[in-house]
Amino acid sequence: MLEATAVVLAGGKSTRMGRDKALIRVTENRMLEGVVKVLAPEFPEIIISSNASSHNIPGTRIIPDTVFGQGPLGGIYTCLKDSGHQVNFVVACDMPFIESRLAVHLVSLAPGYDAVIPRMGGHYQPLFAVYTKKCLPAIETSLNNGRNRIVSFYSKINSRFVGPDEIRQFGDLDMMFFNVNTPGDLNIAQKMALHAPQITVQEEADE
Predict the structure, then answer these.
(1) DSSP for residue 147
(2) Which of 84, 105, 131, 163 lies 20 to 30 Å from 5, alpha-carbon distance?
(3) 81-134, pLDDT tens digit by residue?
(4) How buried is 146 (Cβ within 10 angstroms: 0-12 exposed, 13-18 middle, 19+ buried)?
């Protein structure tokens, strides 16, 4: 098992979806449960960034925000401080097709760096990335200065950026990083799941 913690961000308001994304089913699992299920065999500690008791899953810890109104960066900051490991893999709960092998690979690249971040075509994947506790001062500075975009502190840390050629050996890029923000995204994800091998789709009526 890895010497690292998995941090699952589930504290969003799901405004565009209109209901709690973490509890929506794309496959047989609700999205938060599915992410935890994929990561549990690899990570000895899984913490969930959330203020909702409905997000409690056996074998995980819920960490409520201590920095309010700062979006995902506030959740990352709180969880890095509370994490039991120096190295932390951070992922959003609304990514139903994540690949644990890629998470393991990103963690393996962490020695010597403050963060390991996928970057494709100039676009970062900040919510499928590795952040160490060394990022905490830079994150705190960004938050104190009213900058709560996750990428706002990247220029202040030593990062290893991982490109598409290195990533695609672990799966389909569009699928692994697909996230579900809207009912339209949910419809697309359910269609993707129908054509993905070894994925069982849960009917909407069973929610």
Answers:
(1) -
(2) 163
(3) 999 999 999 999 999 999 999 999 999 999 999 999 999 988 999 999 999 999
(4) exposed
Pairing of strands 45-49, 115-120: unpaired
H helix or E strand, kind and range, residue 9: strand 5-9
Q: What is the CATH T-level fold of the domain 5-206, as seen in this structure?
A: Spore Coat Polysaccharide Biosynthesis Protein SpsA; Chain A (3.90.550)
Task: Show the CA angle centred on residue 57, arms to residues 52 and 58, nearest 5°.
Answer: 140
Q: Which residue has the tokens 């975009």?
A: 149
Instruction: Break the chain into its structural domains and give their ranges.
Output: 5-206
Cβ–Cβ under 8 Å, residues 126 and 117: yes
Cα separation, 89 vs 138, whole angstroms = 17
pTM of the model: 0.92
CB 47 within 8 A of CB 79: yes
